[in-house]
Amino acid sequence: MSASTIDLAVIPGDGIGPEVTAEALKVLEKAAAAEGIVLRQTHYKLGAEHWLETGETLPAATLEDLRTRDAILFGAVGAAPGDTRIPSGIIERELLLKLRFSLDHFVNLRPSRLYAGVGSPLANPGEIDFIVVREGTEGPYVGNGGTLRAGTPHEVATEVSLNTAHGVERVVRDAFRRANDRPRKKLTLVHKHNVLVFAGQLWKRTVEAVAQEFPEVTHDYLHVDAATIFMVTDPARFDVIVTDNLFGDIITDLAAAVTGGIGLAASGNINMDRTAPSMFEPVHGSAPDIAGQQKADPTAAILSAALLLDHLGFAGAARKIEAAVTADVEARDGAVRTTSEVGDAIAAAL
Amino acid sequence: MSASTIDLAVIPGDGIGPEVTAEALKVLEKAAAAEGIVLRQTHYKLGAEHWLETGETLPAATLEDLRTRDAILFGAVGAAPGDTRIPSGIIERELLLKLRFSLDHFVNLRPSRLYAGVGSPLANPGEIDFIVVREGTEGPYVGNGGTLRAGTPHEVATEVSLNTAHGVERVVRDAFRRANDRPRKKLTLVHKHNVLVFAGQLWKRTVEAVAQEFPEVTHDYLHVDAATIFMVTDPARFDVIVTDNLFGDIITDLAAAVTGGIGLAASGNINMDRTAPSMFEPVHGSAPDIAGQQKADPTAAILSAALLLDHLGFAGAARKIEAAVTADVEARDGAVRTTSEVGDAIAAAL
Ligand SMILES: CC(C)[C@H](C(=O)O)[C@@H](O)C(=O)O
Ligand SMILES: CC(C)[C@H](C(=O)O)[C@@H](O)C(=O)O
């Protein structure tokens, strides 16, 4: 394979973020070297700690700098729940969501797979192997809303979910493409169109229209409440799920739980138009309670690095990381390993 | 106990609704008779079938008539998913949600309990016994939204979640009261305040304020995504959950699934100010695929009748129905029984 370069931005973040990111980089570096890929890294100090030191969430200059990179490897951000020095949600909204929205990460890709030997909380999980294509740039996440007469008995608070044909169509088409590339070729739209009728009809009509372009893909529909039932009674029924930003947030955490926990759940915030770098991050948060103790499982971060390679066109290297992770995960016997021991083992298995 | 009268409205509805309602009435009639309660019934033909015959969802005169009753026993409504004669969601919105909103059912009470011997999809469910107090009259369910340029590439669709201090405070206080009456005295607020900041802050502030009135109740907070994880990894942690209309819809279906299915999940749509009749219904839908075949489990409908008695002040009769259900459910051995056989058995166990 010919030599290529990846100009990588790294945002380790807070809590366990730096620890798991270090292992993801360890594996990424080795996989890249084996393929003759030159990995250039620029590390960015961002997150709750950085906010406490500087009062900055995501300065404009930093965002512009990030835009010039090929991809972003993201650890986790967020303060300890009890930390009252940091306004609630500010890091999530002004850093994480701001990156997703500014860099137009319209495909929030979250694969769920139950590895052989991994314990599921379900008694009979079956063969779980699906992906959720969560819309990442609109819906109830747009921050459109307000408060009138805050703190009085007459307070009114609103949240506006914004949904556009542009935004829905591109993510639905992406989901159909992915379904078309998978053996089962099945797509499930998850929404709540019987109640959220305006947004729901847009999603439903769009799925019906885009389905015409993919005659081999079958599709069905589930209300989000019914989808959570199937997630615990028959998760094997799912192949590709496409859904909005909020429903996707909810069902991917549930999906991570039924496949053995968020220590294994990877994600990509992907700009499929490639007008800005995509960002890859474990689904888990910064887990301040176990930070700095080498207790965190870096597997989700490592699998996120594989998604990164895949997105940049290095499918071979991505498959190798995934195979090494599979080998490691399937051999786990419950013995306690440090974060870096897990990273070492997966790197060695490459 | 002195003789009393219940002036009951009955809306059997569609699909399995009439079958399960018949069993709920069978048990309710027997329980009432034993306590010297006179049960007067008025049956209303409403639902998808009625819409097909008349084009009516909920005529104003019917709604006014319902207002004069003491309580409503509701079966299930809704057309078969494939039935294109009925505009999608119209029965849900213009009948079911219209009743909840018009009659100010601000407490949507949904208990979840894992009965001994009932199979949970979870490998180690633990002792599950919690209630969800779902807000029932506002949030994303208000039907406030719209569509601009429908069907064009420039379509924009909005959904507005409306939240008021009045609406949030009354349901939060109700949830604290219920928590205060339970042995564990623990309340969990479920929301997504790091993203839905306007509504989320109103909910959080309200919980903090109302908590002052209940010094014995401890409370915590979970984002809705994290709540779904705990629902499958540690559902025993929950005692009373208070949440908004949409999050409540999602987590109560999930809760029903982990406690053995929606065949057992009862609910009350309760107007705690008693300015209008409350309405009691199984969480399940009309299940047109098994309608008329005596296959439906009427237990959820029967438990809903117990909630009805409880709300009307007949706690003794309610407890007797619950005890009869517990006895029946715990004795189930997997043998197939018809809907009416289950009703007969529970009535006999009273
Ligand atoms: C931290 C939070 C804003 C975020 C989200 O809601 O998208 C997280 O839960 C996730 O799923 O990546
Ligand atoms: C039928 C539908 C409108 C309803 C809801 O979303 O509230 C149902 O799912 C429920 O939970 O009672």
TrEMBL record, chains A, B:
Binding, substrate: 100, 110, 134, 225
Annotated site residue numbers, Important for catalysis: 141, 192
Residues reported to bind NAD(+): 285-297
Record's keyword terms, sorted: Amino-acid biosynthesis, Branched-chain amino acid biosynthesis, Cytoplasm, Leucine biosynthesis, Magnesium, Manganese, Metal-binding, NAD, Oxidoreductase
SMART domains found in the cross-reference section: Iso_dh
Cell location: Cytoplasm
Binding site for Mg(2+): 225, 249, 253
Cofactor: Mg(2+); Mn(2+)
Cofactor note: Binds 1 Mg(2+) or Mn(2+) ion per subunit.
Signal peptide span: none
Protein's pathway: Amino-acid biosynthesis; L-leucine biosynthesis; L-leucine from 3-methyl-2-oxobutanoate: step 3/4
Catalytic activity, reaction form: (2R,3S)-3-isopropylmalate + NAD(+) = 4-methyl-2-oxopentanoate + CO2 + NADH
UniProt KW NAD keyword: yes
Domain Isopropylmalate dehydrogenase-like span(s) in chain numbering: 5-346
EC annotation from Swiss-Prot or TrEMBL: 1.1.1.85
InterPro entries: ICDH/IPMDH, IsoCit/isopropylmalate_DH_CS, IsoPropMal-DH-like_dom, LeuB_actb
Record-linked HAMAP family: LeuB_type2
Function: Catalyzes the oxidation of 3-carboxy-2-hydroxy-4-methylpentanoate (3-isopropylmalate) to 3-carboxy-4-methyl-2-oxopentanoate. The product decarboxylates to 4-methyl-2 oxopentanoate.
Subunit description: Homodimer.
Family: Belongs to the isocitrate and isopropylmalate dehydrogenases family. LeuB type 2 subfamily.
Record's protein name: 3-isopropylmalate dehydrogenase
Organism: Arthrobacter humicola
